[in-house]
């Protein structure tokens, strides 16, 4: 046994320090990824440096009984010195040296840390390797912790390496079921070398990504894209697929898709798998997708994106920003294309994601162009397209903010004019943006502005006004003569919220609940409000009842007074509709009403 | 109390109670706010507030309303316009239900900040007072210790007490460190510390501080932008202009950082003065946009500051008009300040600079308005409203009665974004009476898409001033055109028809009216045809008119006319007479029914007709076989040039159906059962096709119970048949029985059996259905 050497791993501190802060390489899936990547680089190296051509292959095996996961490659292999220099020196991968020497960008490894990752999940690691430089000798490397290891000659095999991980008990689940196959399918999907699982004659990555497959044409393009997308979108079916092509300043390629699942406005199911140099680097790079795209998944590859030292994330540098822009553009163009060219899929996209799309349209002008006529908003008459809301409102979109629910809202319901639900996601800003683009007005019911719009001011003679004031008003109310529909409605009482706020904040009670300086600031504002009017009484000059009332009064008929008293009682009843405008004594109003009715019947 | 702990707990609880959406919003809203995603904030707040109310959870409501206020006030600089809401929120935050909520304190801060945004220096004393009051109630462990301290220091700074502010900040920092060093100390009161240090001329320290703040990753988008702009200002103040230029975020990425407009415009001005920044149209546009937005939001003091810079920069690049506009904005803002302070001096200085510039650069006007317009609209001259406006304005002042000049002036104002001014110029001319129709029309066109009240006022103005019926009809014409655009056909017809009657040469009105009439059946089409004839007689007929005429003629069955138009349009209709009934490509028909639009696949039978090929579900009136005339302006766009072959192959044009020419009279019958061979199925379809019955097969992979063996599944097929009225139910049932006779198993059509009404047949098909497990 004199051939066995016992040695200690050299630590290249600069390399290691970069990653110490992160909990790097903590799952067997990451270890698997790193080992496949090392195998890939070894093959690339043999192709670069070796003389004789060979059929490259990587084989992954799961030995359930022994609890061993192994990765075999017929790449360059390592000499004894290389094992010491590279395999066993943390932070000094040969790949980096080779990339610097050759300028090749198809080498994957970065930090020379890949191998280290395997120790986190293994009780023991064995590497058998035969270098193309000395095919007649082979070496067996063994270590339990990556720090101390033994190195001995062994029976020479074919050129290449076999790495065997004796997995720790708790990580052996990886060897069971289809998990390994599904992982490799995704991890190696873009690797240009064939990767085999066990003795299967078919490589797990035999099907190239559709954007690299030049043999595809006709209907097969679409189905290949969908099938590829389905491998990555594990939670939902892809509804339609949009390609990303390289553009100026960005080599990004890949696919985006819309998920076939119903979303709310604020759902965020984004997922994006990012491949750098053929290996899956980040399977949750959702930030690269725009924040509004909560229903979008994707796979992209780029050699320009830079991984962070942890290898599980991307550096947010200028290239990252460019990639982000590129993806946003591709997504918007892709959506337009689906809208124009795949009507059935587009219908489904709209059906599934209408609410989320309201938000999207607000975030990007191009999407607003695309979606303005397509999206619906919830209204009192069901979900209606924005154009229908404006059409039925005669170029106005009436919106209820849901918080006030005043009488004027009842009024529109009676008129069968749809009222959009302003308290639902995106509705108010979407309708505003629509109006800005296509013309029309958004009328918020229950606001001062909205009331001005609904109750068109109109005047009567001063004398009539004085008489109406005297007959109809109660203290704190102000009369506004106006014209509005429906004409069957003679009066509407609308409380003044500002006056209520003023009353509350200027009362002594407010001193108890609020700090003096804060209250002072608030009162500076309420002082500017007119608190004398607690409610506006809109009198409808279009109403035949009001018309007749004024006419009867002008003729000096007694009935005018009785009719006015009935209407005054009606105001009291209506006040019950809108809370806050109360302050009207309902029982005395009812007494009044009855008395007047009796008098009329006399 | 720690508000974030409450947020975490409440979120968990909401998710546990099944309200994941609302729970997620507790995190999502603040993130959207600090990352400047204003649109997303506005989209989700109303719903969040409504749901908090529905849950009767005032703390939750307070949280959402406060964060909306943060977004509107602190990041978007809503001043005057948010005051009412800020006061209402303070009121809401100080009730019995909300008094324990730690976020209550923040609403006071929102209100103070709101006043600070209206007029920071003007309200400085009150802001100092209110923040002092709050600071007395909290200690450094509170989340809001940072915000309130910042606001206090900011108020001191606005009050000109820079050194007091610096001492105060040092004290607060020491208190913070003593109590809670775990926090992010470089960023404590981050922005105001940078400003105060730099104001004191301690730029080296300010730079070190901002750099320390920028080191950390994961900062909010908004704050990072502001820090970068601060860094640029410090460098500019140190005279390191090139570095400052490089540090300043671009306008395109900065657009949403409204609270940083003051800072950005300040740096831009310093850099332009130093020759390190190009003072071009793009810069003018950026700062003009800032002024407009600040002004609109009611950030009065900041509006004045940024407008002053805008004026200086505009004059420096010879854009007098923009400078004067900036001055007007400043003048309008002054009365809205609490106290003018230095604002009057700023206005004076801008006014003097403009006067000086004008006396220095008095351009001679050409000898006539025509010569001026020739010069402005000379070929190859790049359109630049900002450049041309001073000349147009001067010329308009000199020749106020020259109408083409007035119209060009108004257009230039509109193009430069001065929409109100543009409308005012035209309004003034209209008010003077006797304005030509072009002017009234131009004004109306500007206003029809604006606020409805504005258009009402226009209508009133025209009523008062118009001297001819034609002028009087302009508002109605515009409303009519808008109604056509919005597909309000009845309204369009009601408005446009009287005009057509009154004016024999109103060709455009005729076209518009014809388009609306096409939606009104035979009578409408006949009237449309007449109108289009009048357009032709007037010599104003165009290619699109031929299309409309062809549609109208098709609807009323005037095939000779339809064919003549089709020939003119070179549509390749074979010679002949009578109805055009070709077998052209598939298309999609968009058919409006009330508020809904249904899209059906259809086969085009001519240039503007198609037959629906969609087989509907049973039980509804089937559109199959219906023939429609459609508007030949497609609703979609063809695939781009880069589209692949498959996409091109699948592409179909979509047209808006305008009038149903014939009913297909089909009904839908369904069949279920074991799948026959493909050959049997094909034979079946051929046999039924001979009776004009169309067969659609349902989804593949359809399975049913095996009638022969319980629990076993068999491959099955689901068929929908579009059946013409020429075959009655009994004949159909017989036909189906005959044509499926050789199939592996008996098929089931219980609904058809019900329709036939034969008891034995009904029983049999029900039994078959049950056996299939349908």
List descriptors.
heterodimer; A: alpha/beta; Heat Shock Protein 90; Ribosomal Protein S5, domain 2; eight-stranded mixed sheet; B: alpha+beta; 6 domains; five-stranded mixed barrel; four-stranded antiparallel sheet; flat
Give a structural overview.
Chain A has 602 residues and is of the alpha/beta class. Chain A folds into four domains: 5-197, Heat Shock Protein 90; 223-355, Ribosomal Protein S5, domain 2; 375-453; 458-496 and 533-601, Heat shock protein 90, C-terminal domain (Four Helix Bundle (Hemerythrin (Met), subunit A), Up-down Bundle). Chain A is 41% helix and 21% strand. Chain A contains 21 helices and 24 strands. In chain A, the strands form six sheets. An eight-stranded mixed beta sheet of chain A has the order 1-8-7-6-9-4-3-10. Chain A is elongated and about 125 Å long. Chain A starts with a strand and ends with a helix. The relative contact order of chain A is 0.06. Residues 13-25 and 578-582 of chain A have low confidence and may be disordered. Chain B is α+β, with helices and mostly antiparallel strands and 774 residues long. Chain B has six domains: 1-118; 120-216, no CATH class; 278-359, no CATH class; 378-568, Alpha Horseshoe (Serine Threonine Protein Phosphatase 5, Tetratricopeptide repeat); 586-662, no CATH class; 668-772, Alpha-Beta Plaits, CATH 3.30.70. Chain B is built from 37 helices and nine strands. In chain B, the strands form two sheets. Chain B has a five-stranded mixed β-barrel with strand order 1-2-3-4-5. In chain B, strands 6, 7, 8 and 9 form a four-stranded antiparallel beta sheet that branches. In chain B, a hairpin with a 7-residue loop joins strand 8 (703-705) and strand 9 (713-723). In chain B, helix 27 (474-485) runs antiparallel to helix 28. The chains are: A alpha/beta (602), B alpha+beta (774).
